[in-house]
DNA sequence: GAATGCGATGTTATAATATTGCGTTCATTG
DNA sequence: CAATGAACGCAATATTATAACATCGCATTC
């Protein structure tokens, strides 16, 4: 784990995918959950892309590989992966990304570049704390937080300066 | 209808809807935008419900009133209302709510009760600040923030205690 | 008053996303 | 090995959203 490489930073992508898969195996093993071939393949596709993938993107990729998959196949795999904290759903995009902190408790939080479509997952305790505090002041019992920030990543800001 | 409680607080609902419509008229007037009958009716339906309404809920309501509306009619009205800050889209629900702070600059932020489905919109500067800070630390230029918190409102927490 | 431009609306079709239900297969365990 | 339950295949359908193009009404201008 540690040192998780990020979209905005060059990294050895193959290694990063392998690491994610290895983590997933470990996590599922510990949870007595079955990381079946389809589930693993879906997770791998998501990590390979490193950008949010829609369910039907995944479906298309599986179809190309000869797996005769229907929508439920993909949605079930995604449900499983979400339940085990291996992927996140980005509500504002109807798409899925690999979880950068699988296995850790965290309130994820996403920076979504509208230009290059990369997504950076942060785990910012001070943000989570501010949110919890605001909720508590209303007597609200928070269970699940969706926090997605669209904008421009550093690289794409430079790009748009050139115009 | 009647007596639909404003999220977590009793209030005169008819007056609350009227107020929202009056505000909307003023805001559109100031912006030289046309709050046409369909747009106004959609906004009114949203406020009357006081809970998130889906586009097809609205479509159904319009149909019942004899308006022969197709999906684009509703989506266009919703686009207009969003652009003028009169409604918000709740990404995690694919639904729409009236904006509680129309006309004010704000980064909205929603507490969504999973039991009664009421939504409370907050404008919490300290949360917005924490989010901006975290984004800036990554060099990310934030443009649009989606912050939606699902959980249980105070009333529904008491309900579930009774079980 | 005809011509023009333009925002709003109507209409049809279709795209994109997601779920239900049911029967079958397969791994595990007793 | 039989029973169990999770996972999967498959067909159909539900839900959410957009594209493309025609039309209407109204203000401006000639």
From TrEMBL, chains A, B:
PANTHER family: ZINC UPTAKE REGULATION PROTEIN. This is Ferric uptake regulation protein. Homodimer. Keywords: Cytoplasm, DNA-binding, Iron, Metal-binding, Repressor, Transcription, Transcription regulation, Zinc. Pfam families: FUR. The keyword Metal-binding applies. It is found in: Cytoplasm. Belongs to the Fur family.
